[in-house]
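Trying the structure run again after the queue cleared.
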Amino acid sequence: AAAGSTDPRQAAVETFIKGYFSSWSNRDMEAYGDCFAQGSCVQYMAANKQIHFYGRDSFLDLQTKVHQQSRTRLRETPESIDIRFERDLARVVVHWKLVAGNRTEFGYDHFTLFENSDGWQILNLVFYSTPPAGN
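Done. Tokens:
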């Protein structure tokens, strides 16, 4: 089922994704950490196409340090959310905007989510920034 479908899980996944971004932006690292399943994996693709791999805990530590070391408040918001369901999984592609003081950056998050007794959680996340407009 594509975004905009009548799948009853659609609203819950969209709420989860919005909560993911707001918890990070609000520096609520406990709530942010709860978005990730134990054993989840995160991959960051750098501009030079180098892939950085993280387990859940090392990624959460890194994100906590990013906030602690930032001189300005970091805010990341979803610009668009595309949700597709495959049996028990949700595949979500989010185009995001990150604002850090006078710097604005865009990119994509590719989530694989699953639902358990605690609700939706991230199994895998691949993310990257996109080049500035005109590049």
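The mean pLDDT is 93. Worth checking whether this holds up in the mutant runs.
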